[in-house]
Write a structure and sequence with these properties.
By secondary structure, the chain is of the alpha/beta class. The protein has 15 helices and eight strands. It has an eight-stranded parallel beta barrel, surrounded by six helices. The relative contact order is 0.15. The protein binds 2-acetamido-2-deoxy-beta-D-glucopyranose (7 copies). The site of one 2-acetamido-2-deoxy-beta-D-glucopyranose has 3 residues, from loops.
């Protein structure tokens, strides 16, 4: 059973998907691209494991701190026919796991305020630690996938109760409960508006998103306003920081959102948010750049845009992380598959070759488990590195080649996804 058979999971993606579908409708033909795997040095990588290359990168200290190449795990996936395969890939491919759903608020505090059940989240953390790999927490505050008691009684809590009790208790309990050995937490997820415009104030960036807890009813701007500003975000970060100090952890605290570099206006809001937290003395260590892209000219960032965002975050003294990466394929032609490989490769390079990017994380492990295939749209989705039989695809080998190139001290490849008119390797 795929994770997409769960309605709540489907719901969680509505916003992101609207953006994705708009982009797909404007699909343009794949350009001819140049790939590292075309070169003799990177042609025969069948027997090289990604984990061995990650070990070289980390042993040689080629990054300013440990480099993580991660993917998702879900209770559902671990209990299917793919369980053995999944376990093997978290030994030879990924060195970090993030929970797809089981560390979200609805899972952690399901039945009533103050009644926590961290079992599902902790069991995925334990899976990661048993495999000797890192674990990222996702997430402590999001408008979506909240507990029913918080969704169904929108007028039952005052702003003061939310700000002083409900949010602080949830954030602190979860961060402390998962413990000091996590690498990072997405503290706040998707609080910024899709319709952000350059120059918007931070308050407008948040209010125009029309989401809870700005509005009592998520997505309903006619419902009463709860918070009139972005201070619930401060509250979440303040309490995550308190919790990590209590448990003596140096884990990183992230804000995580989509469109952070596709439309620069959302990037603008994210940077404003970071500046606002910093000027209030609230700790934030990074921005997670959710990367649900499509092999389509308008639906993924150019390499220049990726570096622009990483550099701006660096100038604020914080990290960028690639999170939730998959690349939707509109058709399964060889040209599209090659384009997909070049997009994965360019995004990986923009992280590898930035000194402030240490986590590169995929969303879903193989095509038959991908949330993309839960959508009733035409087209071939196949957005992951492994096919429906669990076999590595061309994008897998291209990603491996980019990692090897970096591990061997190679120069940063040019922007291959822009096509051979711009970049020939
Ligand atoms: C990979 O390993 C197998 C078994 O050791 C060997 O038969 C095969 O030739 C190797 N392939 C490459 C491309 O090195
Ligand atoms: C806590 O969650 C686990 C995993 O979802 C579940 O098996 C268990 O029954 C829950 N415990 C309680 C007390 O509800
Ligand atoms: C509303 O909150 C109060 C406590 O603040 C609680 O006693 C009551 O059960 C809640 N009502 C619902 C419907 O959840
Ligand atoms: C939006 O909220 C208002 C005020 O609470 C309510 O009257 C209206 O029915 C809601 N609309 C929808 C679509 O939920
Ligand atoms: C919420 O709490 C934060 C501190 O955590 C505070 O700065 C802010 O003013 C509070 N917001 C409201 C609306 O009370
Ligand atoms: C490519 O798509 C066509 C049409 O949907 C399908 O018949 C074919 O099996 C697909 N091939 C692969 C390799 O997925
Ligand atoms: C997909 O969409 C078509 C056309 O709108 C509809 O007839 C069909 O029932 C849908 N299938 C699923 C699985 O939702």
């Amino acid at each position: 059973m795929s994770a997409m058979n769960d309605n709540s999971v489907k719901m969680h993606w509505v916003l992101t998907v609207t953006t994705l579908l708009a982009a797909i409708q404007a699909a343009s033909p794949a350009p001819t691209v140049s790939l590292l795997t075309d070169l003799p040095r990177f042609k025969n990588l069948q027997n090289v494991s990604i984990r061995s290359v990650l070990k070289t990168i980390n042993d040689k200290r080629l990054k300013t701190s440990t480099f993580y190449f991660g993917s998702t795990i879900a209770d559902l996936t671990l209990n299917t026919q793919n369980a053995e395969w999944t376990s093997a890939r978290f030994k030879d491919t990924w060195n970090l796991a993030v929970a797809e759903n089981d560390c979200k608020w609805f899972s952690n505090e399901p039945v009533a305020p103050g009644v926590f059940n961290l079992t599902a989240c902790q069991s995925l953390r334990d899976f990661a630690f048993q495999h000797g790999i890192a674990f990222r927490g996702h997430n402590t505050l999001w408008h979506n996938q909240r507990p029913d008691w918080l969704v169904n009684n929108p007028f039952n809590f005052t702003v003061s109760q939310l700000n002083k009790t409900i949010i602080p208790t949830a954030v602190q309990t979860v961060v402390q409960g998962l413990g000091k050995n996590l690498v990072s937490w997405d503290v706040v997820n998707e609080a910024l508006s899709d319709s952000a415009t350059p120059g918007m104030s931070l308050t407008d960036c948040v209010v125009s998103a029309q989401r809870w807890p700005t509005f009592a009813i998520d997505g309903n701007s006619s419902s009463p306003m709860l918070f009139h500003d972005s201070s619930f975000i401060n509250t979440a970060f303040i309490n995550a920081d308190k919790a990590r100090k209590k448990i003596g952890s140096d884990m990183k605290l992230f804000y995580n959102d989509y469109n952070v570099w596709v439309t620069h206006s959302v990037t603008h809001c994210a940077l404003k948010l970071v500046e606002s937290l910093q000027s209030s003395g609230v700790a934030i260590d990074g921005v997670g750049i959710q990367s649900h892209y499509s092999a389509n000219a308008q639906a993924f960032p150019s390499k220049e845009s990726s570096h622009f965002t990483m550099d701006r975050l660096k100038s604020l003294g914080i990290e960028g992380a690639i999170t939730e990466l998959d690349v939707w394929l509109p058709d399964n032609s060889t040209a599209s598959l090659r384009w997909q490989a070049s997009i994965f490769g360019d995004i990986l390079d923009s992280c590898l070759f930035s000194t402030n990017c240490h986590e590169f994380i995929l969303w879903d492990n193989r095509d038959d488990e991908s949330w993309l295939d839960g959508f009733n749209t035409t087209g071939v989705h196949q957005g992951t590195l492994f096919d429906a039989n669990g076999l590595p695809k061309l994008p897998f080998f291209e990603v491996l080649a980019r990692l090897l190139n970096f591990a061997e001290g190679g120069a940063e490849p040019c922007a291959t996804s822009s096509g051979t008119s711009v970049c020939v390797l």
